[in-house]
Write a sequence for this structure.
């Protein structure tokens, strides 16, 4: 590789450094509002100068770069005849001059570090105003400078800063601190994968949720302290009103020291017969009914759940499934039609509170018409005539067994419900009373012989299982039929996935004339039930104190908040100078730019021709001695010094004499 | 120096952590770009190092085919950059025990522009005899700040064969053995007079000296026969060189020196010795003078003097089996023990 080619390649490799310097200089000049500058022209002008300088190396006129630049600049100024252009040319000339000076071998070792540090200091002082390109340019300059300190030559390591600079151009910046969105997402992703692996393993080996973690269990046995877990057990999705919904697996009838036992039979849709009669006798119209109830169709699918139960809302009308295996597990999907009721609705409460206790049943056809009227339902497809008749004679005696209640539990129940004359009032009183107890997921009453008694009088803290069991037992003591139910209390307002920490136990009390009503004695805020806020008196006012509006979790974002793309800022190309005149020929005009491009191209062509002409004239005017020195140097560049010494020894000897001894050629 | 080499990495880590803390608390182009630069420096540099590894071409060569132990020979190292980007930070390493260069090519970092080739000429001398990898054995490329380094074996290692010196390290052992033989009325002794060829002949075997061929018989019969010494071959000294499966360069070097010393002993007194060695089978050569010694040294030496490669684990067994069929004095040189046994 010849020396000239080597120098050319080195020059090209050092371009990024010089272009970076030009950009930083431009940004500084523009920031300080020293000159009228047009960004595109400024940069392209300087870049052209650099390219031209490289070309000049071939014809060995490196030292005349500045002269050439002066000539080019003069040509452009003559063509443009504009003060603004003159200023622009002057600015680019100054930058080119600095580059030229700094390329001097003696100066560049300290010159470039000084300029770079100066640039860093200036822009750190004004860092809020530094544009991305300016900072990237400073980084490139810094790399070159640091490398030149650490290593002899920095051009060989140029690939890394250049690739870095190109990569940095594509990355976003922001005025706000970095929020690690990508990292957070990556960490969350890894966490999800790990959690899923754990879930898969535990699902494969355990089948039923572990007794140590929250989750649905079809066993009624008492557990010790629990650890909250967020495993996704099933999905429950629909397009209707989103609120909290009880999803029941099963109910239990009795208690013993080990927990609930004796699974209650599913009474089918008899509850609907009772419910419709309650509505009928309360005079609820089809417009009123939507204040406190909705007919919903949904899709459900088991994920990390294995059970023989079909998990469904407490007021389910229909279950649709292609196949119903004995043990339902992941992938078991089914559709549901159910009614969701706002038990806290004033209409419902008023109906329940005012009910005098005599259950009335209309004839089947009347209720069929009524159901069609208010819910647009075919009652015959939900409750058959036989079921309807059977619903009139429900045996509630099995829901009144309070043999497990200790004496003091019985006394307590009676004390709490003193003065309450309706079943609903009694249930509400007990529900309210139990809210005074402490919610503690870690409570362990497995060692007790009567955990309900221990819960109420000794530990006085527990979780849903304890609260629900206590209320059921107390209700039965005061003559209100009740049962202990297990399943999930799912908040649909967050996600369609039903998680294991939503597994729940609650009491259901049978309110004569209405049917089974769930209560919520567990005081944790997660279980708090609020009314939807619709009612006869509130109609049109919107929800009151309810959070039943649909919403989705806010997107966490990615990287800097507020913006992924760069904030709009003063454009290098377009927004013009601050407080100074624009060029009269309007450089932002397209035709103006084309004119300048033509001017540049013409300048280059003219400059090249001029350089060749100057060289020839210069050579012709040289003295014989200078011609000899010039020729030998050209020869050395082409074939190397050693080769010249070897092959042109006589000539070289003469050259040495002429150059160092001052001999004249006529003497040689 | 090894401890100091961690300093750039520590500085880099500190800068990286610092920039991360800074960008987490302060926004702006500066903090972001500095942070990105430090984060991206690692993958970009590693990519560049991988590129360098595949772009760098290295070739090393010596002018002569056979080197002599500890004798300098002309050596050339050629480097070229076959890629489109410059490469830098290239340094070399050699086994200092084995190879010495006249000019130190190690500890210097080389850089090449795209398409550039450079040649370095110096002299190389090898310390041990035998065939092995010499010269530059390892290449290290690093980034400009010394944070990341990649080290790998030379893709085209230079294999040399270094001839052992001719010494007298075996003289004492040989003398003892021959003294024993002399006491048993064996003619062989290092300082005994030269013995002459007799009239007994046998069919020519590969390795027999041309000077022992019975040419008159050949002219008559057209078949090659070798004349035997006055004394029967049963008095011949036979040396079996048993190779070491796990040969080292030092072990091979000593073996070669020893065997050459034995051969030289007998060549000098013009008394025959048959040397058996393993090279894709049991092979042998008779040495009884300088003619036959010159055939043995160097050509035959190369057949069993190399280190590396797979050594047939049954070599020892085959040599022992062959030795049992031989009459005369049988000596065994065990390379792994560096010992001569009868």
């Amino acid at each position: 590789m010849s020396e000239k080619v080597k120098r050319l390649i080195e020059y090209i490799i050092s371009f990024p450094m010089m272009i970076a310097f030009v950009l930083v200089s431009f940004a500084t000049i523009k920031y300080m509002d020293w000159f009228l500058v047009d960004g595109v022209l400024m940069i392209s002008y300087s870049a052209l100068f650099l390219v031209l300088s490289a070309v000049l190396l071939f014809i060995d006129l490196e030292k005349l770069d500045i002269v050439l630049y002066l000539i080019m600049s003069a040509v452009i100024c003559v063509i443009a005849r504009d003060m603004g252009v003159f200023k622009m040319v002057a600015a680019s000339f100054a930058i080119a001059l600095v580059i030229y000076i700094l390329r001097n071998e003696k100066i560049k070792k300290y010159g470039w570090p000084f300029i770079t540090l100066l640039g860093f200091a200036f822009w750190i002082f004004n860092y809020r105003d530094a544009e991305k390109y300016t900072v990237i340019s400073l980084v490139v300059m810094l790399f070159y400078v640091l490398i030149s300190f650490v290593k002899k030559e920095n051009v060989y390591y140029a690939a890394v800063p250049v690739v870095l600079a190109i990569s940095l151009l594509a990355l976003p910046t922001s005025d706000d601190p970095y929020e690690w969105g990508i990292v957070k997402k990556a960490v969350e992703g890894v966490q999800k994968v790990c959690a899923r692996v754990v879930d898969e393993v535990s699902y494969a080996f355990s089948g039923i949720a572990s007794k140590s973690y929250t989750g649905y269990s079809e066993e009624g046995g008492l557990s010790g302290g629990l650890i909250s877990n967020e495993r996704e057990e099933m999905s429950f999705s629909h397009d209707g009103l989103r609120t909290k919904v009880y999803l029941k697996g099963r109910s239990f009838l009795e208690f013993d020291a080990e927990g609930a036992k004796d699974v209650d039979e599913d009474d089918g849709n008899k509850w609907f017969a009772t419910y419709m009669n309650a509505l009928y006798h309360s005079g609820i119209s089809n417009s009123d009914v939507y204040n406190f109830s909705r007919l919903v169709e949904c899709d459900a699918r088991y994920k990390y759940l294995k059970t023989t139960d079909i998990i469904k809302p407490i007021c389910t009308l229909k279950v649709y499934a292609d196949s119903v295996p004995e043990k339902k597990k992941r992938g078991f999907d089914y559709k549901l039609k159910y009614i969701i009721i706002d038990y806290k609705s004033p209409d419902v409460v008023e109906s329940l509170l005012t009910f005098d206790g005599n259950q009335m049943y209309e004839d089947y056809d009347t209720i069929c018409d009524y159901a069609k009227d208010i819910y647009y339902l075919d009652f015959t497809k939900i409750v058959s005539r036989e079921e309807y008749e059977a619903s009139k004679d429900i045996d509630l005696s099995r829901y009144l067994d309070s043999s497990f209640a200790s004496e003091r539990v019985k006394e307590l129940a009676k004390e709490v419900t003193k003065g309450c004359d309706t079943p609903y009032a009694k249930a509400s009183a007990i529900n309210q009373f139990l809210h005074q107890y402490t919610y503690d997921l870690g409570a362990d009453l497995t060692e007790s012989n009567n955990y309900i008694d221990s819960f109420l009088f000794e530990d006085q803290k527990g979780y849903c299982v304890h609260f629900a069991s206590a209320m059921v037992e107390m209700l039965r003591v005061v003559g209100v039929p009740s049962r202990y139910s297990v399943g999930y209390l799912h908040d649909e307002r967050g996600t369609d996935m039903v998680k294991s920490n939503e597994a729940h136990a609650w009491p259901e009390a049978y309110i004569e004339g209405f049917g089974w009503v769930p209560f919520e004695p567990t005081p944790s805020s997660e279980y708090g039930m609020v009314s939807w806020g619709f009612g006869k008196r509130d109609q049109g006012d919107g929800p009151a104190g309810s959070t039943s509006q649909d919403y989705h979790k806010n997107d966490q974002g990615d990287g800097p908040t507020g913006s992924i793309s760069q904030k709009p800022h003063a454009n290098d190309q377009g927004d013009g100078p601050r407080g100074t005149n624009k060029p009269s020929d309007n450089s932002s005009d397209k035709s103006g730019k084309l004119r300048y491009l033509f001017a540049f191209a013409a300048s280059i062509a003219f400059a090249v021709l001029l350089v060749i002409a100057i060289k020839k004239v210069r050579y012709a005017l040289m003295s014989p001695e200078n011609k000899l020195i010039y020729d030998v140097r050209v020869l050395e560049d082409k074939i190397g010094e050693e080769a010249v010494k070897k092959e042109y020894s006589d000539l070289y000897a003469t050259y040495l004499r002429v150059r160092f001894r001052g001999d004249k050629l006529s003497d040689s | 120096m090894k401890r100091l080499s961690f300093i750039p990495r520590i500085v880099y880590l500190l800068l990286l952590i610092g920039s991360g803390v800074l960008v987490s608390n302060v926004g702006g182009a500066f903090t972001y770009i500095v942070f990105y630069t430090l984060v991206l420096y690692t993958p970009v540099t590693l990519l560049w190092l991988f590129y360098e590894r595949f772009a760098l071409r290295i070739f090393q060569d010596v002018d002569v085919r056979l080197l002599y132990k500890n004798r300098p020979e002309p050596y050339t190292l050629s480097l070229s950059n076959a890629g489109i980007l410059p490469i830098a930070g290239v340094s070399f390493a050699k086994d200092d025990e084995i190879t010495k260069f006249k000019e130190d090519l190690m500890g210097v970092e080389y850089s090449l522009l795209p398409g550039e080739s450079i040649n370095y000429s110096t002299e190389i001398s090898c310390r041990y005899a035998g065939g092995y990898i010499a010269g530059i054995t390892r290449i290290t490329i690093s980034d400009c700040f010394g944070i990341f380094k990649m080290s790998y074996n030379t893709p085209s290692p230079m294999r040399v064969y270094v001839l052992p010196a001719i010494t007298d390290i075996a003289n004492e052992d040989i003398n003892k053995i021959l003294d024993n033989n002399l006491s048993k009325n064996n003619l062989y002794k290092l300082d005994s007079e030269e013995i002459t060829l007799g009239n007994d002949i046998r069919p020519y075997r590969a390795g027999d000296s041309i000077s022992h061929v019975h040419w008159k018989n050949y002219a008559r019969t057209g078949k090659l026969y070798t004349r035997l010494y006055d004394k029967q071959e049963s008095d011949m000294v036979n040396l079996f060189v048993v190779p070491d499966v796990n040969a080292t360069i030092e072990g091979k070097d000593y073996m070669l020196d020893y065997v050459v010393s034995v051969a030289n002993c007998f060549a000098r007194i013009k008394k025959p010795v048959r040397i058996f060695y393993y090279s894709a089978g049991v092979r042998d050569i008779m040495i009884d003078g300088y003619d036959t010694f010159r055939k043995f040294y160097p050509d035959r030496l190369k057949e069993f003097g190399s280190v590396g490669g797979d050594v047939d684990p049954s070599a020892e067994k085959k040599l022992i089996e062959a030795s049992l069929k031989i009459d005369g004095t049988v000596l065994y040189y065990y390379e792994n023990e560096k010992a001569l046994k009868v």
Remarks:
- The CA atoms of residues 148 and 154 of chain A lie 5 Å apart.
- The interface with chain B takes residues 1, 6, 9-10, 13, 123-124, 127-128, 130-132, 134-136, 139, 146-147, 150-151, 153-160, 163-164, 167-168, 171-178, 180, 560 of chain A (CB under 8 Å).
- Chain A has a mean pLDDT of 77.
- The radius of gyration of chain A is 44 Å.
